[in-house]
Design goal:
single chain; alpha/beta; 37% helix; 19% strand
């Protein structure tokens, strides 16, 4: 499986320094690093099952926007947006409701993870539409629990829900699905998602299904390139178009997006109008100073122990 890792604050070797971890926590929230670790667990399992013909794009910020897609998986059967949660405990996934179970009682969770991943899948679908990339199937949202301590009671959930002990079965089901895309189309689609190349000329846009229907005599690589070139000519990519409203519409429910869902993490920021923030807020500055002081005290303690142990 080809993995394209776009995780912020991470080196090419996949390492995150202490300073970068602090910056990532300030920008994305306290669950940022825990979600990255949860992603590592799931990606490792998927990588053991998938070989050639699958591309996984991790923590991609959609070009020109603040929308971060946690995991985009492209395979022969379609395109999937996967959100991996690090949480543990007992939960219910009933229709579009995401409930936490405590002491035998069920109540709505502070953040509806199913609604969250559904919004992210819709954002990616919109992103592809802007580029005039027509998929035969909609982008499918998938919620995966990485922690074995998380138990989910599912009753016709609005999105696909996968528990920690069923990740390999989920991957196997994708291998057994009806092929829609060729391998060359998958790789070209991944490149197009990561780095759209706008052009000013106009032209026709062939349907994506034609890739899978290409005759053996045709060159798949050349055909894939021709399709994406035509897509770029048909509609230049404009990042501002991603600022579509999500507050008045969500997948399978007409409710507005609750205010508490607007917390973000690197693996799961919600689609929202493009806004830019400058500098750190007072709370972020206080948190940064606190973390630095804690680290200084730890280092001072080690220095004290080393000095007096001689």
């Amino acid at each position: 499986m080809k993995i394209i890792d776009k995780t912020p604050f991470q080196t090419e070797k996949g390492e995150i320094s202490l300073l970068d971890r602090v910056q990532g926590t300030l920008k994305y929230g306290f669950s940022w690093y825990a979600e990255l670790e949860a992603q590592n667990i799931v990606i490792d399992q998927l990588n053991r099952v998938f070989e050639k013909g699958f591309v996984l794009i991790r923590n991609l910020t959609l070009p020109g926007s603040d929308i971060v897609e946690p995991i985009i998986l492209i395979g022969q059967g379609g395109v999937y947006v996967i959100y991996v949660t690090h949480l543990r405990g007992f939960y219910e996934a009933k229709g579009d409701q995401w409930n936490v179970v405590s002491n035998g009682r069920s109540q709505g969770a502070p953040i509806n993870l199913m609604n969250r991943v559904a919004l992210l899948a819709r954002a990616l679908g919109r992103y592809l539409q802007i580029q005039k990339i027509d998929l035969p199937l909609q982008v499918e949202p998938v919620l995966i629990a990485a922690n074995p301590g998380m138990h989910i009671d599912s009753t016709r959930p609005a999105v696909r829900v996968v528990q920690s002990d069923a990740v390999k079965q989920f991957a196997a089901s994708l291998l057994q699905g009806k092929p829609i895309f060729t391998t060359e189309y998958i790789y070209n689609l991944a490149d197009r998602i990561v780095a759209p190349q706008p052009k000013s000329e106009s032209g026709p846009q062939p349907a994506a299904q034609e890739m899978a229907a290409a005759s053996p005599a045709e060159n798949p690589a050349a055909r894939a390139q021709a399709i994406f070139s035509a897509a770029e000519q048909a509609h230049p990519f404009n990042p501002a178009d991603l600022s579509f409203a999500t507050q008045d519409e969500s997948v399978q429910q007409p409710q507005a997006v609750p205010q508490n869902l607007r917390e973000s993490s690197p693996a799961q920021p919600l689609p929202r109008p493009v806004t830019k923030q400058r500098g750190l807020s007072p709370m972020q500055l206080v948190l940064l100073v606190f973390i630095v002081l804690v680290e200084f005290c730890i280092l001072a303690g080690f220095g004290y122990l080393i000095f007096f142990s001689k």
